[in-house]
Specification:
The protein has about 190 residues and is α+β, with helices and mostly antiparallel strands. It is built from nine helices and five strands. It has one domain (about 5-180). It has helices at about 5-15, 30-45, 70-80, 80-90, 100-110, 120, 125-135, 155-175, 180-185; strands at about 20-25, 50-60, 65-70, 145, 150. The strands form two sheets. It has a three-stranded antiparallel sheet with strand order 1-3-2, with helices on both faces. It has a two-stranded antiparallel sheet with strand order 4-5. Helix 1 packs across helix 8. The chain is globular and about 45 Å long. InterPro entries: DUF3793.
Amino acid sequence: MNLEAALIEHASPTLVGLKPASLFRVSPTSSADFARQFLHCRTQLATLGLELLILKGCRKRSSYLLYLYRSRELEALLKQPEHHAFLQHMGYKAWDNVRDCLRQLAARICLEQDFPHEIGIFLGYPLEDVTGFIRHKGRNYTFCGCWKCYGDPRQARLRFERYHRCTELFRRRYAQGVPITQLVVAA
């Protein structure tokens, strides 16, 4: 498993700054190799203003849920009054910083039976899509792409096309030997 390739495949819109965060699962064949790659990538990305976390991990199954985010952008997003109020309504306690809020999210991922749908806020999904998904239980969406949308389908399609073009470009450049650190747009 190559963690850099997984970042390119699943987090290019975050690497370039189109999204504040990305979430993806990796299942490495070697825990030791994964740990080495994870620490290397985390250190490299931190110098560019991005944070890489393990939100949930299972060594027994060798499966990890990774979260890549742009700290400033995520903090600004979570401080927006409508997002803050929504998260409080969903049971999040007051937080002083992004890390505190992410700890609460990680605990909810690990402890709750259902996946916490408010995670969409942490990934930069529009609030109307997150609340629409919860309200309609995943049905009656107006457009389905990277996630189910409940607002303007034209805007959603355009957003997803930008994400797809970004990922395609990053895949191509990475395959040509361009290092991930040169592809990232620094935060």
